């Protein structure tokens, strides 16, 4: 099936109402902090244009880094540097920054099942002081799910790098056109990546 189908819009937190004991129970939403530290908001075209140039210079391709979908591992293998505040550029921002070059460059991303990705995001942020403090991450996963739902209800889910659904990073702004034609799944990363190596320069 479509690797994005489970995580394709701002309603995706409803898919995350799963915890070890079963379905999450109703609870009071936990408000998100009004101001976030640098590095945790989704970068815009001004930043992403510079990132585009780095990727193309290093590997002659563009890697769109979805949080907690093996992006750090893939970037390390490709020799693409991790630079705080620039890592999670949406494909739409890359296109806006470099409209002439964007269609000509090979575009790759890795995706992950949204449930396991949500657990990974929660564990990562909980264990990382900057992320934990910026997002006021709860120690309880059920409370974290409620936090996601609260952010989605405010219409703010797409503003934050660690919360944005995968589709926000991979589709155009209306969410109709996939801007990254080459996708690999985290769950079958080695096999999928090998399949791409024969097709694309720079891998």
Give an overview in words.
This protein is mainly alpha-helical. The protein has one domain. The protein is 38% helix and 9% strand. It contains 8 helices and 5 strands. The strands form 2 sheets. The chain has a 3-stranded parallel β-sheet. The protein has a two-stranded antiparallel ribbon with strand order 1-2. A hairpin with a 2-residue loop joins strand 1 (18-19) and strand 2. Helix 1 (45-59) crosses helix 3 and helix 4 (114-127) crosses helix 5. The two termini are 25 Å apart. Mean pLDDT is 79; it is low at 1-39.
Short account of what is shown:
By secondary structure, this protein is mostly helical.
Relevant terms:
single chain, 203 residues, mainly alpha, two-stranded antiparallel sheet, 5 strands, globular
Task: Provide the gyration radius in Å.
Answer: 17 Å
Q: What low-confidence regions span 5 or more consecutive residues with pLDDT below 50?
A: 1-39
Which secondary-structure class do the elements indicate? Answer: mainly alpha
* Beta-strand percentage range: 5-15%
User: In total, how many domains does the architecture comprise?
Assistant: 1
- Major sheet description: 3 strands, parallel
The number of E-state strands comes to 5
Helical proportion, percent range = 25-40%
Order of helices and strands: EEHEHHEHHHHEH
> Average pLDDT across residues?
79
Shape: globular
Query: How far do the termini sit from each other?
Result: 25 Å
